[in-house]
Design goal:
Length: about 180
């Protein structure tokens, strides 16, 4: 078993959930972002920065981190596991452990993007901040998405894998509200 997923092998079995998003926790994540936003904006304004412009990307990434992290609670299905089920249906135990670990990696990425944006807003140049929030953070997301896909193709080569475009379609299908 890979060193990456070994610590997560004994993750508790998730209760069955629908493939649609748990909007209750999305609301909690949005509420956290809304509560944090004025504090981050005030900090930026105090430093002579345009707070709303600088704080929004930070708040959005922290909200995404909180949302993904909320799915890692005991008895819940991790976000990346939901996406994988949309692709595969049932998941083998090694893929369940891997998708749980990968959900943690996504949480860390969103926190890192928020942190880098905050540091650049306070201590960086306007050009550096614009470059990072306009492209750098998105490139990090794309790199993790494609890197995860490549890792799965190599490490789990004994399973079939959808193309990156098909994976995006599965993510959109999971995120789409159900009537």
């Amino acid at each position: 078993m890979s060193k990456l997923i070994a610590p997560f092998e004994r993750a508790p079995a998730a209760r069955p959930v629908s493939r649609s998003v748990d909007y209750r926790w999305a609301g909690v994540a949005a509420l956290i972002a809304l509560v944090a936003y004025p504090f981050v904006a005030a900090f930026a304004i105090e430093r002579g920065l345009s707070g709303a412009v600088h704080a929004a990307p930070i708040a959005i990434n922290l909200a995404l981190a909180a949302w993904f992290a909320s799915t890692l609670r005991a008895g819940h299905e991790p976000m990346i596991t939901r996406f994988a089920r949309a692709e595969r249906g049932t998941l083998e135990a090694d893929l369940v452990a891997y998708t749980r670990a990968l959900t943690w990696v996504w949480v860390a990425l969103f926190v890192a993007v928020a942190g880098i944006g905050a540091v650049l807003a306070v201590a960086g140049t306007r050009t550096a901040w614009l470059a990072f929030t306009g492209a750098g953070g998105y490139l990090m997301v794309v790199a993790l998405f494609l890197g995860g896909w490549g890792y799965r193709r190599w490490h789990f080569r004994h399973y079939r894998h959808a193309t990156p475009l098909a994976l995006v379609r599965h993510v959109v299908a999971v995120m789409r509200p159900r009537p």
